[in-house]
Q: What sequence folds into this?
DNA sequence: TCAAAAAGTGAATCGTGCTTCACAAAACTT
DNA sequence: AAGTTTTGTGAAGCACGATTCACTTTTTGA
């Protein structure tokens, strides 16, 4: 009588769930939330629309999950940077560079998740995520102020400004594929320098710490 | 045979058009584009939904007009500041303060117009408007660099960052009515200082130019 | 192998909100 | 004042896309 899912089945279901999340994420990255209808997600994931509702109770909750997962990964990367060696200014520079360069590769994903509103539920999650990013920068700022690297300042405001600054710099001139890698690099540097000056960093750190090439090896 | 509208009629029509624009603007300010349905606009303006379409061909065009008008006013204010006396740093400070303090009073209007996407048509207009704001700041930056007040920098990037910084600082901590005037003022100052440091302003200008109180006389 | 349960399907349903339209009222012309 | 045109009405039409549901297929337990 009582039922039990075989491990194989269990696995397949989990895989389906992942495929749905992945498909949703991909569609958002390609064309924003606007393009990510349930039917499209289903097609992309190789399932029927109805099946989606076996895994997620509503579109809103699906996208909240997508958002949370994406942001979790992003925050993790930033945390690794903070835990690493270097001055507060270097940490800040690395965080901004890292975030911006990744966002430039999937512009709509970053845009949708940071800026594009949707159902109130997703919106609420979006705001929480923005705050999470803000918190990371707040920690860098507090650290830098304690170390005497940065002058005292309203860390809440500065953190929000930093998030806003690089966000706008990304989505403003967003003619994505058109810009060359070279000019993207220049943009990243400009934004980084803006943020460093903004927090009152006394000495701008070296452009790129050449040691330990973290992940993405750009410009071959 | 040929028809001519009496001046009185002409006037009434123009007034209606204005009332529609005003109603739309008000609704956006109150609850974002989400709340501003055609039927609501019509009700607010004291007309029927059908009548709206005698004045505007579509919802999208109506809101493009609303957006353009709002931004035109805003830019005008910034232009007056730029034309006035003072250093580039003072101009920048005044622009940021002016924009931010006005935005804090109608947070959703600022939000909707700077950040909230809608139909592609409105979206396009929104991006144009952002660029217009960016251009104002670009001019301040170029001026400041020429005068030797600011170090050389990527003015496009910096201008975008400034717009982004104060936008985020405004819409991020959007618990609008709750914050006291006092804390709002502190926020404005923090954001202003952030932007001044960010562009590398050598000397932070006096907190508030006491002479010639421009418009808004806050804190009585 | 068969019956019960779960998973999957995709067309129909439903809600929302823009847009149209058949008609009414008002404004102009003669 | 009668006829013509413009303006106004608001309910109906329509498009879009999330959600549901009657049904099929697959999996599981005996």
A:
């Amino acid at each position: 009588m009582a039922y039990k899912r075989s491990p194989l089945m269990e696995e397949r279901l989990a895989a389906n769930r992942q495929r749905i999340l992945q498909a949703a994420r991909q569609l958002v990255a390609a064309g924003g939330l606007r393009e990510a209808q349930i039917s499209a997600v289903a097609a992309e994931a190789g399932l029927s629309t109805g099946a989606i509702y076996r895994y997620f109770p509503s579109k809103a909750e699906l996208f909240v999950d997508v958002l949370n997962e994406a942001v979790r990964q992003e925050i993790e990367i930033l945390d690794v940077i903070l835990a690493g060696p270097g001055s507060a200014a270097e940490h800040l520079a690395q965080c901004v560079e890292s975030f911006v360069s990744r966002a430039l590769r999937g512009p709509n994903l970053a845009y949708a998740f940071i800026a594009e509103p949707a159902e109130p539920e997703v919106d609420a999650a979006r705001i929480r995520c923005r705050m999470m990013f803000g918190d990371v920068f707040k920690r860098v700022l507090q650290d830098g102020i304690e170390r005497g690297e940065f002058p005292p300042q309203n860390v809440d405001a500065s953190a929000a400004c930093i998030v806003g600054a690089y966000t706008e710099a990304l989505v403003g001139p967003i003619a994505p594929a058109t810009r060359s890698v070279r000019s993207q690099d220049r943009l990243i540097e400009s934004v980084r320098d803006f943020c460093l000056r903004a927090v009152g960093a006394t000495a701008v750190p070296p452009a790129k710490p050449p040691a330990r090439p973290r992940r993405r090896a750009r410009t071959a």
Chain A touches chain B through 37 residues (CB under 8 Å).
